[in-house]
Design brief:
Distance between the termini of chain A: 61 Å
Low-confidence stretches of chain A: none
Strand content of chain A: 15-25%
Oligomer: homodimer
Largest sheet of chain A: 7 strands, mixed
Helix content of chain A: 25-40%
Strand order of the largest sheet of chain A: 7-6-5-3-4-8-9
Shape of chain A: globular
Mean pLDDT of chain A: 93
Number of strands of chain A: 26
Structural class of chain A: alpha/beta
Radius of gyration of chain A: 24 Å
């Protein structure tokens, strides 16, 4: 061990553990009058936010919740969710953000595995809950959340009361204790390709550090930052999806106006964006596509709306379509295990001067450059670091101060995740000489054909540029001769059509340019109404592979003869 | 102790201590081609910066420096200083940034007290060093720094060699070890009113956290951030003065172009600002006054230059004079003990809409609002927290993750500093309902007259608005009848004059407005060529009080008969 000089603090010095409560200090000081908005139903200022967080903390304590207890939340994006993201960890408890789109069996599994003691539940989910609650092993009580004034909890379940009624009974101040900054603050579950959902968890220290670096990344980079203190923020990534990527903590620390849209309804999202003057949002590609395609969007002017895209690769077709409507998309990269921020798109000053706007989009849709404090490499199967030449492919491995330190109660999978002291992302990527990371694929989604590896993402990106195609997914399907062959699902724009020749002609151009080899042209394509998505809006390739045979029988299926 | 859930990380998880080396990761990734400039002599890119830091680390190790050793630096602001601010702590050693403006006796005291093992010394200071070196008790060797190519160290002193020659011998890569994030990284001495200089010290963890919050503060607040990654940075606060307020670490993390001016010469500073396109600097009021007054400044166009002012109160007269030349001044507040950032000027969105530009200046010259993670109160002599009403006066006490945890080897003064678990700043201030902190005075500079307290800063601010006055300092001097009376030193603009009547008339207006009471009008004023400053450019009120009797004998002294 390196023998550095470590001095004992003077006995009276305050040690200042990094705790989530400290993120609350500054936003109110900067802009006490800024609003937190929930749909067209609630609107209050930062002073009230702080008071309501205290009231909720007092209500939880009065309901028997204490340090180390796990409190789950089943709720759409709301001011109440924001309050819970502070109040629950601030009393030393742990917030379990339940993915309400999981199957009932998965929800039961995660509630029992996380050892939830209480569940805050929106009354929309009561029918779901009533079918599951007899199988919960650790839940002692529930708190009802409702948009209807004066709603009262159903009898027959141990409800401590209704959220607003409970808050009203409590004092608007609370002395929050100091404790170990390595205390777990949040937990949630990620569903992999096989097996049960796995629980990741983040500590107070990790969330404070993630917040600070995310602030620097969103606010201090380049001439047009994504979000500074004067922006208006609306998440369009669910708060159960990696804490809405941590942005609610950033926004609250900076005193930004925040708009919470509840359950996502495209027309309402457009209305809120327009009415509240939203300038910064984030979401997966499928959601922005849905928003831009909805009826209310057709007349809207989105100029000045900056949207960060993550969760899935952002393809150029979508970036251009969004830009056409005034929406500036910019990619970022991370995952549940990484809190999530690892990389953000960045266009260097030189490239901004040299490239056309269109050429710059290639940098805005890339996963980007690792953000401050993130150490990232791509490694081959033996763990050898690959050169940053834009061509050498390998798995992304990462180190940062905010990565889950394991999967809860899964020692073997935890060690796999952290093999050799690096977090293994399962994503295959290249890094170029500028440091730009380009995700090529999930390791399990790479298409192995005739001894070659084809990136399903690359292929999707190129197919998305076909004028008739609005959405596309490509997976590898078994082939006796070539091992695997690419199979594509496409959605076409209303009134458009595609056929084998048109797709083939479109892709041949890229074969001629050397961007893909000719074996990458899918031999099988199915035109469908919609493409299956996971619970967080990503392309569900596991599902597509499983349903492959069904698609071939459908009306839209055809073969491209390469 | 609150029993939260603290989980053991999976054995292979990387623990990620917060270390200064991590601040180096991102700047090069964002803008590898950006330049570090030293005067008109050196110009290189971030890749080279990283290589030179490795070379310096290797050279230090080859010269016998290891973890826990203290390496002092006597140097003007340069690329070499920046390199040392990284390389020395990155090998686990401690950089002692010597204030070269201290008296020889004070330098000898601090070198011995800090237990310096090596000194990196610019050849300009060799004559000074030769007179002191026999009294150094722990120094084993020296490293020569010179602007002259091929300079060689003097014989007779144990020099390990010349900086550039040593770097040239070493490899441009280095594996920096991980160690305890609470290891001391930097130390320097602060001179108080009495007694020996006191050593403050900052750990790797503290400097990383300070850097992140300073980045958020400079970059993510309001529509016109002080510094984002596209700005061009030139410090005009010496690097030995609280690490140039920590900004070199911020700039390097963001990949900002950096310009180092060496020894401060006003004409050269103007030339560098103009030629290199500097957009962000920071300094004490006296320095910006000196720059704006120099001959080269008269023809210069400073539009777009943002200058953060700290170290002393920023008065409105100076802010207006600077604005007249295109320089936007903005105040911040902190001190040596606080790393230094505690507060930064902030104008809320509402005030920006409601107030004229001139009225907004009152907020830009205030100490500002505590930055993220800083907890700050004003307390009375018994430690009672005072209300935030803009009127209740008290001493500022603070908590933040980057405050010195004591004075090195001074247990009693350390406990005084941290009495009741809050760092005592010795500054008297008010906080208004918007959270804006206004420093009224140093506790020891408040003028006690006839049972009233008069803020010397308030008085200086009002006198600075007199059209003939370019600089002013006010101190309390003993008075048999009133306990103390205010005494003012003033410097007038070239060609201008002041007399008792003119000063009295000027101040009477503020008496009538109720801003000061009539006892605040100084009865004694001396017009001088220049006002004594401390080694870091602050008004030296200790000196002024000591020389009071001399000033009264001077030509410029007169009495104002109130």
């Amino acid at each position: 061990m390196t023998q550095t000089r470590v001095l004992e603090p003077t006995p009276s010095a305050y040690p200042y553990p990094l705790l989530i409560k400290q993120l609350l200090l500054s936003g109110r000081r900067y802009e006490a009058g800024r609003e937190i908005v929930y749909r067209d139903q609630v609107r209050y200022d930062y002073k009230t936010l702080n008071e309501r967080i205290c009231r909720l903390a007092n209500a939880l304590k009065a309901s028997g919740i204490g340090p180390g207890d796990v409190v789950a939340v089943m709720e759409w994006d709301s001011h109440r969710y924001l309050e819970a993201m502070f109040a629950i960890p601030m009393i030393g408890a742990i917030i379990h953000t339940i993915n309400v789109r999981l199957s009932p069996d998965q929800i039961i599994y995660t509630v029992n595995h996380a050892e939830d003691k209480m569940i805050l539940v929106n009354d929309e989910f009561l029918p779901l809950l009533e079918g599951m609650q007899s199988q919960f092993e650790t839940v002692e009580s529930y708190m009802l959340i409702s948009d209807s004034e004066g709603a009262s909890p159903p009898t027959g379940l141990p409800f401590v009361g209704e959220y607003e009624a409970l808050l009203a009974q409590q004092a608007p101040h609370c002395d929050f204790p100091d404790f170990d900054e390595n205390s777990v603050a949040t937990t949630f579950y990620t569903t992999g390709t096989t097996g049960n959902p796995k629980g990741v968890y983040f500590t107070h220290r990790q969330l404070v550090l993630h917040t600070l670096v995310e602030t620097a990344t969103l606010g201090a980079l380049g001439r047009s930052p994504l979000m500074n203190s004067d922006d208006v923020y609306m998440p369009v990534t669910p708060m159960f999806h990696v804490h809405a990527w941590g942005v609610p903590y950033v926004a609250t620390m900076l005193g930004v106006k925040q708009v919470y849209p509840g359950r996502y309804e495209p027309d309402l999202l457009v209305d809120l964006q327009q009415r509240e003057g939203v300038t910064y949002s984030h979401c997966v590609p499928a959601i922005i596509q849905m928003i831009l395609g909805c009826s209310r969007a057709q007349q809207a002017n989105f100029d000045g709306w900056k949207v960060l895209i993550g969760g899935s690769a952002l393809n150029k077709g979508l970036a251009l379509a969004a830009l056409n409507k005034g929406v500036q998309l910019s990619a970022a990269y991370g995952m549940s295990e990484t809190c999530p921020l690892l990389c953000g798109a960045y266009v260097t000053e030189t490239l901004r001067e040299e490239l056309t706007d269109d050429q710059q989009i290639d940098y805005r849709i890339a996963a980007g450059i690792p953000v401050p404090l993130v150490q990232l490499e791509v490694v081959d199967a033996e763990g050898n670091v690959q050169p940053h030449d834009g061509e050498s492919v390998g798995e992304i491995v990462a180190r940062a101060p905010w990565l889950t330190q394991g999967y809860f109660k899964e020692p073997e999978k935890s060690e796999e995740l952290w093999a050799n002291g690096w977090l293994h992302t399962g994503d295959v990527a290249t890094i170029d000489e500028l440091g730009t990371v380009r995700i090529r694929d999930r390791i399990k989604d790479v298409i192995k054909t005739g001894g070659e590896w084809i990136s399903s993402l690359d292929l999707e990106g190129l197919m998305s540029l076909h004028p008739a195609i609005s959405e596309v997914a490509v997976v590898g399907v078994p082939d006796p001769q070539w091992d695997e062959r690419p199979f594509a699902l496409v959605v076409v724009h209303p009134g458009e059509e595609v056929d084998a020749a048109s797709i083939k002609d479109h892709l041949k151009r890229y074969v001629e340019e050397g961007r893909i080899n000719k074996w990458a042209i899918p031999t099988q394509v199915a035109v469908v109404e919609s493409i299956p998505k996971t619970s967080v809006g990503k392309l569900n390739k596991k599902q597509i592979r499983a349903d492959y045979a069904e698609y071939l029988k459908g009306d839209g299926a055809f073969l491209s003869s390469v």
